[in-house]
Amino acid sequence: MNRRSVWTVVSAIVVTLLGGCSPQKYSANYTSGLVYCSESDPISMNPQLDTSTTTADATAHQIYNRLLEFDTETGRIRPSLATKWSISQDGLRYRFLLRQDVGFHSTSYFTPSRLLNAEDVLFSFNRWRLPEHSFHPVSGGYYPYFESLGLADNIADITALSPFEVEITLKQRDSSFLANIASDFSVILSAEYGDLLMSRGTPEKIDRLPIGTGPYQYADYQKNHYIRYDVNEQYWEGTPASESLIFDITPKSSLRLAKLMTGECDAIAFPARVDHQVIRERDDLALDEKAGLNIGFWAFNTERAPFDNPAVRKALAYAIDKNTLIEAVYFDSATRAKSLLPAASWAYQPDAQDTGYNPVLARQLLDQAGIEPGFSMTIWAIPVERAYNPNAQKMAELIQRYLADIEVEVNIVSYDWSTFRRELRRGNHDSVLIGWSADNGDPDNFYRPLLSCDAIPSGTNRARWCNPTYDELLDRALQTEDIDIRKALYLKANELLFDKLPIVPIAHAYRYQAYRKELSGMVINPYGGVRLGGVTKHRD
Amino acid sequence: MSRFSFYDDEAHPSPWQHTWRAFKSSHIALIGLAVLLLFVFFAFFAPLVAPYDPIYQNTEALLIPPSWTANGSIAHLFGTDALGRDLFSRIMYGCRMTFGTSLLVVIIAMLIGVTIGTVAGMLSGVRSSVVNHLLDALMAIPTLLIAIIIVGILGSGLVNSMWAITLALIPQFIHHTRSFVRGEMKKDYIQSSTLDGASNLQLFYYSILPNMFETLVVQGTLALSIAVIDISALGFLNLGAQPPLPELGAILATGLDAGYLAPWSIAIPGISIFLMVLSITIVGDGLRSALRKRVNR
Amino acid sequence: MTRILFRYFVLFTLTLLALCALSFSLIYLFPAEPVTTLTGITPQNLIQHEALINQYHLNSNILVQFGDYLSELFAGNWGVSLISGQPLSKEIMLALPATIELSACAMFIVVVIGIPLGCYSGLRAYSNADFTINSISVTLYSVPVFWLAVIFILTFSLQFGWLPLSGRVNLLFDIPHQTGFLFIDILLADNLDKSAALSDAFLHLILPTLSIALMSTASMIRITRRSIIDVLNKPFIIAAKSKGLSSRQIFVRHVLRNALLPILPLMAMQITTLITNAMIVETLFSWPGIGNWLIQAIYQRDYSALRMGMLAVSTLVVMITIAIDLFNRLIDPSREKFESVTI
């Protein structure tokens, strides 16, 4: 190597490092396929078993369909596997008329012999609904979404009126029922496949080698590496344009962006907030944003002393400056949260009470509660980017500094995502920075899973807070369809929450989707997981 | 005897002076030494010279570029990170953390390794052979693997990663001490001391150790550069120092997250680690060739 | 000869036994239930807990347990991963070849570039060329691999867009897993544009290989150079010179052979360094190797995976080391084991 070429390389490196970069696309001979870089491994291939966005992203809209679906634009519920539905006068009986031309995936491990019918709907619902169902205990027997909403208890019966008509009877009115049926988790599985697996004695395969009706079918999965899907040629909504879909699992957000820039990914999950500007400046990348139905919060484990004392929780809430957190962590792409609901919800209360930044008051409250200076606590910070909290680690470090000012020591705890959730469910935390992305627009979808008593065992109530008055308010709100009455009840719930403060609401964030401009049909789904069925890639 | 000698005695520089003279003759080694001394200075006096607290978060000043760029501010020489912490102070403390712990690790490993190595070298026969074989096996296990196992047992943290690296470094010291002691034991001056009735301990302390000292220093610099790289690698992988501790590898890992917007937060910690290792290597090289020159005279 | 072979066989068995004992002890050292670390199954209830304990004789004498552990190991029953529930043997067999492939390519570069450059600079010792090579190698030796990898990604993937940065091959190539060695798998696969797949795999290999090879190449240059200089100073070289041999003849016949012999055991140590570096670099290039796998396992606190991963990697490394050592012993019986390291 002569001296000049050495200098060329050296200066190129220096320019890259100090001057920022204007990367170009690495090109390879692609087959027709779509690569989506996701952030973590799904817990299971069946979203009934898990509430995390990662699992929902990888499965809900790729492999499966639901009876009903949200329109991503309007938020209205629209037909999917059910073409029509009707509700009885008393609001207790729901009838669904099913499509008659829907086939299940035909893969190397299963070939369906019949089309979708009412039996499959019954099978899918009864699996999580009935503890005595043969598939209920398979893969752990936890169905956190349905348990946290109390849905299983509220369904009195499901019957097939005809091969393509299903009736669901509720015990009590539930004005959020249709929304729940349309959420990511209410997927329809194949009863025929279930029977086959049961007869072979390997029922747990239903969650590892999934069969659904969605646009893509499962082909291969290697942990920490990729999930491969093949196209479902017979998809009832029309065959997707790409031959295959690949989830490239890339935990580091900077690497995901790098792969997006080189074209190794066509779209990425959760672009880091610091990188938004970089993405916007590039001609070949697109960044969409949409107000999200979510909330990022700081939950205290109210089962542990001293966090069982509302005064202590309040004191800690007063010690942090939410505006700074929003600025530093969300780069102002979020709005300050006062209550659980974002402004997009109809029950949003603009004048809800909020905790301000007041370290002096915070220390006083702690003194009154008998918390000595030097008290030490843990903050668990989710290890992945989420729309509701793009960088919990950083937020935890900021809070660590704030609490140091009131002489509270903080240890930040973080594990890998699946371990984190496992440990969190055991309630080993003092407090946790986490959040919730709504699965539908109904306020009940925030209030109930996050803080109701039922949601403690199902693991979505991170504060492990149980208050009968609160639960009663929520139940009453579901008994009526009258928006104003419901709104008044949720205002009361807000007051109660401000008084007890089991969680400190921090921010409602926008949702972002970064992808290459060759893609079309990429829309943000505010009501849950990413939908890649309708996405096409234009080849240059 | 008279108090002064009439004839000038020939100056007899000590072995150390010889080495220093030979070392001094290489300019590169001197520059390396100067840089190394700078790091040593940081390691000891970072709290006195650093302009800011390394974990103080100035949320008004996020991701400020270094002072030599157009948008830089003179208040933050190397700019700030995504939490508004002054990068220059963090790097200074980082040198302290990385270099200091590495030094500590090497000293501990050296003490243990030399002790075991000497015992193994003075013994012979079956016991020595067993030690030898076990060492070969231990030496083959990658440091990272040892570190991962220790982190698995004790949890991640700077101290635990230090244990891992100490464990990984010890075999090399044992090995060298052992072969050195074995070589020396065959030499005449040891034989004569033995005939004078010196015990093994005395032999080691009065005869072997003084001769071994210099090779130990050379070995130590080699181990030090390995330790610096390993500590920062573990910090980088988030298995060693945990945030917000300013450790160079951990700073680099944090810098990676904002790497597109703030490339300097990748460049500066990396260059610091690089310079630290480079200066250690150069000084080690210089020492080695100086020793070689002295011995070959 | 047979005696040496026997000695090495005993040595290998003993070391393997020690490693197995170490991995066995991890069952009790890791902060999880011994049953869980051993089997990878988290018992859901007491009955299952009891059943597992009985099945694996965990309440019997520790030696019996160890014996049991060994027989399970050799039967190929390594337990399942705590997180994914997959058999560990399968996961390790997927990951290990990727790392071996990467390290082997890097080793190839180390030997092909390191030894000739080292020879050259050793023969021209203290000349300008030697000085340049030496400074470059000292510099390369000091660059931390993880930083080097990041810079490579920034420069060659993002700035110039020449090379890809993720994994072993573009995931859109659906290459069926057969041997685990990608290039062989591609050649064995049907329904595939082989030349496109091969060139894509080659492009993917360049950056990770270079990132780990450079540091070891630097060491190799220095080791070779030192060894050549040492040999050049030996009396038999002067004798050869005085006999009137050409410098080419001297180099090929006398210097090279004598200089390379002591390097061999040091190469074994370079392999350890290479594998360590490969493990770090894998995480940056999403390389699905054993290092990436182990580091994910520690992040996930997947104790059963850590236990087996540790055993697999250390066994591999020890095997290579002992094999090289044995080879060295066989071709050069006079030599003491492991020359002292001089660089």
From TrEMBL, chain A:
Keywords: Signal. GO terms for molecular function: peptide transmembrane transporter activity. The keyword Signal applies. SUPFAM superfamilies: Periplasmic binding protein-like II. Residues 77-455 form the Solute-binding protein family domain. One of its GO terms (biological process) is dipeptide transport. The keyword rRNA processing does not apply. Pfam families: SBP_bac_5. InterPro entries: Peptide/Ni-bd, SBP_5, SBP_5_dom. GO terms for cellular component: ATP-binding cassette (ABC) transporter complex; outer membrane-bounded periplasmic space. Belongs to the bacterial solute-binding protein 5 family. This is Peptide ABC transporter substrate-binding protein.
UniProtKB/TrEMBL annotation, chain B:
Residues 99-284 form the ABC transmembrane type-1 domain. This is Peptide ABC transporter permease. The lineage of its organism: Bacteria, Pseudomonadati, Pseudomonadota, Gammaproteobacteria, Alteromonadales. The chain crosses the membrane at residues 28-50, 103-124, 144-170, 216-241, 261-284. It is found in: Cell inner membrane; Cell membrane. Its main location: membrane. One of its GO terms (cellular component) is plasma membrane. It holds the Pfam family OppC_N. It is a multi-pass membrane protein. Keywords: Cell inner membrane, Cell membrane, Membrane, Transmembrane, Transmembrane helix, Transport. PANTHER family: OLIGOPEPTIDE TRANSPORT SYSTEM PERMEASE PROTEIN APPC (PTHR43386), PUTRESCINE EXPORT SYSTEM PERMEASE PROTEIN SAPC (PTHR43386:SF5). CDD domains: TM_PBP2 (cd06261). InterPro entries: BP-dependent_transpt_permease, MetI-like, MetI-like_sf, OppC_N. GO terms for biological process: transmembrane transport. It comes from Alteromonas lipolytica. Belongs to the binding-protein-dependent transport system permease family. OppBC subfamily.
From TrEMBL, chain C:
It is a multi-pass membrane protein. GO terms for cellular component: plasma membrane. Keywords: Cell inner membrane, Cell membrane, Membrane, Transmembrane, Transmembrane helix, Transport. The keyword Membrane applies. PROSITE patterns: ABC_TM1. It is found in: Cell inner membrane; Cell membrane. The chain crosses the membrane at residues 92-117, 138-162, 201-221, 259-285, 305-327. One of its GO terms (molecular function) is dipeptide transmembrane transporter activity. The keyword Calcium does not apply. Residues 96-328 form the ABC transmembrane type-1 domain. It comes from the Bacteria. Belongs to the binding-protein-dependent transport system permease family. OppBC subfamily. This is Peptide ABC transporter permease. It comes from Alteromonas lipolytica.
